[in-house]
Amino acid sequence: MIPGMTAGVRQEPREATRPRTPRRTRLPALLALLVGLAAVGYRLALLLADAPPTNSDEATMGLAALHIARGEDFPVWFYGQAYMGTLEAYLAAPLVALAGPSVLVLRLPTLALYALFLALSWRLTRRLGGDRWFALLVVGFLALGSDRVVKNQLIAGGGYPELNPAGVALALLTVSLCAGVPGSRLPCRAAAAGAAAAGAAAAGAAVRLPRWAGWGLVSGLLLWADPLILPFVLALGAVLAGRRRRELIGRAGAVLAAGLLLGAAPMLLDSLRHGRDPLAAVLTASGADTAATWSERLYGGLVLGPPMAMGFCSPGHCAGWQLWWAPAFVVLLLLAAITAWRTLRRPLPPADLGHFPFAANDNFPRSGDDPAGATGRRVSAAVRLALLAGAAAVLAAYTASSAAGRTPVESARYLSVLAVATPALLWPLWTAARRAGLWPSPRHRDEAAGPELPGVRQVSELTGSDHPGARQIGGLELIHRESGGRMRTLAAGGVAVAVLAGMLGTGAVATAGAIGGVPATHAEADRHRALVDTLGALGVRHVRAGYWTCNRLTFASGEDVRCAVVDDELRPGFDRLPAYRRAVDADPDAAWVAPAGSPLAARLDARLGPGPGTLRLVEVPGWRIYLPRR
């Protein structure tokens, strides 16, 4: 050693040279929490203001909850049909038993389901490879609440509020099962031994059994609640079968099947007892037996459907400028699918990296090991592809149905499950914006930049380079893009940011439109409460009314008033609970109720008079009550 060569150089212990783990900012997580609380608070304020407006279908679910709370009935299906499970009624029954029947009590579980949906979406975005800023973007988008979106999320009308949180939970379980159990890995040297590796695999499989059971249980509950989610269940199930097929042959498959049977037990037992086919009932109800031209279906399904379902439209309609999301949705769906497919098909990086000391704790890949992160990226890509395939299948099935052509505005609720695929759908936009340097860059790299190895500090980090025009290859080199490539990257990033800004802006406008309709909804709810109070004061126990009046009136009165459905010609209509009609027919003093200005009111006005057999009128703001004269 040359004398003086080490002058001024202080030797430090090995531990002192260990690279520090970058401190991750908690700002996006805090902002996401605030955004989530604001979203839940906004929806709670809507509920307290009687918005979104209720209807007789929601009241039918409320009546099921009331019967469950009293122990009088335990319905499997929405009253009057052989599909759409009553999960919402069972969730609300304890609250109805404590506080009595009301729309607010009925909707509190759906509000909790929405809060769970936000939390699970944050977690899913992170597990699929997104950083905290991207997860914040996803939560912010899902926090918006247009007229159609809040109806899907809050109205306990059957099938919709529970689909999105359960679908995201299913995707999370799929990621967890395919990527392994965090924290269960043995050190690399121990895993290299055959016996130790076999023991670790067996231990990991045992740890995963509750998750297999959870996957089956959630899938079964979803199929019972509403078969609309079936494409997502099948797509995510295909990922599981492809990644864990050997494990599925053993105990995992038995546990999953048991969970599936348990979740779907109400549907299966009822089908066996009564010979019902829920899928056929869904197809019939969706309009499969009613003609609609293909031009009407394509317009309702592909043009109106995605903007309505994902919150880009004003209450009850879509303005022309709000339809820009229709082509953007299809393009994004294709781009996201291509991106996920390319990642899935990309060869694994070389595993034999020698003994380069990537970290002082000796956790580095050795010959024969899969570099850390490569498998995780493949799993993330597979789950994203499954979510996109599920969304595409749902959209295709809806477009093929006549409901898309006959009632496109109201039937857009069938596309509410598209929100489950939001993290996968927005991934290309986020990636393009981040590569162009137009969005906060995370500490870790995205999947398209190459494999990431634990404990390795990238050259760009060591030199302090955050140049947006640089690309990391293999985690060891920093290569500047050519000017042409840089311009293309900036252009793609600019388009991505513009689309993201357009999404948030259009959704915010639609949310403002929903807020603007709250006063009218609240006033109508006040008039309905006055109707219920007036009927109670008059001692009326049985009435005849239209479909959209009957069950709402019965639920609001706690079944003190029972109603039989009639059409505008005073003929018997569709009663979801036939027992109500029998009670009304047995009462000679049964009254009639009709909204002011309705065709039913006009027909009943013709029967007003002073003599026996005629009707006398009692007016309530917005309503007309007709009492028989004796």
UniProtKB/TrEMBL annotation:
What keywords would UniProt list here? Answer: Membrane, Transmembrane, Transmembrane helix
Q: Region (Disordered): which ranges? A: 1-22
Indicate whether Membrane appears among the record's keywords.
yes
* Keyword flag Cytoplasm: no
* Transmembrane portions of the chain: 27-49, 95-121, 133-151, 163-183, 190-209, 221-241, 248-269, 324-344, 381-400, 412-433, 490-515
Which named protein is this?
4-amino-4-deoxy-L-arabinose transferase
* Species for this entry: Micromonospora chersina
